[in-house]
Write a structure and sequence with these properties.
72% of the residues lie in helices and 1% in strands. The protein has helices at residues 3-21, 30-40, 47-58, 63-84, 101-104, 107-126, 134-148, 153-162, 170-195, 201-228, 231-234, 240-243, 249-273, 281-292; strands at residues 94-95, 98-99.
């Protein structure tokens, strides 16, 4: 099956589950659940759930084993986007071609919707599950907590906000994005492997390294698209990084330098998994998709 078809299949599976997670029935304040659904179900590529499902498959597991982890990772990602768009952060009005959550509702509701999606992720991973041993679940909770919090994604966002209009070295930029973007991408892969009951430390380490390289590649591609694409294709304001004078790879390396770094990371990432043969092909195809996408 072509990677575009696999991604569509995974996206449909993920969205069916996400749709069933949150209901306004029996809520004393349905606006909260409506805002959560708005942030969670307004489209998107669902790359992180795809990484989780494909890593689970790579590790010998089934889609059913990865369901809770895949939906949890997308809850975390969606919460982070809602909060990133807030006036106190990036102050964006458009996300995935639609008004951002704080525009569609209000700022307080958007903050609370993000908070609720964050905690829902951990509720999902801690639910009793006959397909997952308690020790596995504890590992998965630890993995997601570490990747999401003050040593992972949140730290990267804090560094980003603290260094707007300030020059960064390449090492600082890479460290920022390794936390802000890469940590959750690595966690998506690790969660898939853990959901499958993977106990091979070398396979786990190769997945982590693959995720670290693809996390940086994902961000470089985003930086390039912010310059080379358009608002309609991106679904968010084109040129917003330049407008806000954010540190980016093209700003530091130039367009050609950023493209070369993207190619290098792509090659290094797929080289890590090639020895695994056919079992790694879907992850390699996903890496190809990430670096060649147009939005």
């Amino acid at each position: 099956m072509q990677i575009a078809d696999r991604l569509k299949q995974i996206r449909l599976r993920t969205e069916l589950q996400l749709d069933s997670l949150i209901s306004t029935s029996d809520s004393i304040e349905p606006a909260l659940q409506l805002a959560m659904r708005y942030g969670l179900l307004n489209g998107g590529k669902r790359i992180r759930p795809a990484l989780t499902y494909l890593a689970c498959e790579f590790s010998g597991g089934s889609p059913e084993q990865a369901d809770h982890a895949a939906t949890a990772i997308e809850c975390i990602h969606s919460y982070s986007l809602i909060h990133d768009d807030l006036p106190a952060m990036d102050n964006d009005d458009l996300r995935r071609g639609k008004p951002t959550c704080h525009i569609a509702f209000d700022e307080a509701t958007a903050i609370l919707a993000g908070d609720a999606l964050l905690t829902l992720a951990f509720e999902l991973l801690s639910r009793p599950d006959s397909r997952c041993q308690p020790a596995q679940q504890l590992q998965m909770l630890h993995c997601l907590s570490k990747a999401s919090g003050e040593r992972g994604m949140v730290l990267g966002q804090a560094f980003d906000l603290a260094h707007v209009d300030q020059p960064l070295t390449l090492e600082q930029l890479q460290a920022m994005h390794s936390h802000k973007t890469g940590a959750l991408i690595v966690a998506a892969l690790e969660l898939g492997a853990l959901a499958a009951g993977n106990t091979d430390p070398l396979r786990l380490e190769h997945l982590r390294l693959f995720g670290q390289k693809m996390g940086l590649a994902f961000q470089i591609k985003d930086d390039l698209l912010d310059i080379e694409s358009d608002t309609q294709t991106l679904g968010k304001p084109q040129g917003s990084d330049q407008l806000q004078n954010k540190p980016t790879y093209p700003a530091l390396l130039g367009l050609e330098g950023a493209r070369e770094r993207l190619k290098q990371l792509h090659l290094e990432s797929i080289t890590l998994l090639e020895p695994y043969g056919e079992s790694a092909q879907a992850l390699i195809d996903l890496a190809d998709y990430i670096v060649n996408r147009n939005h």
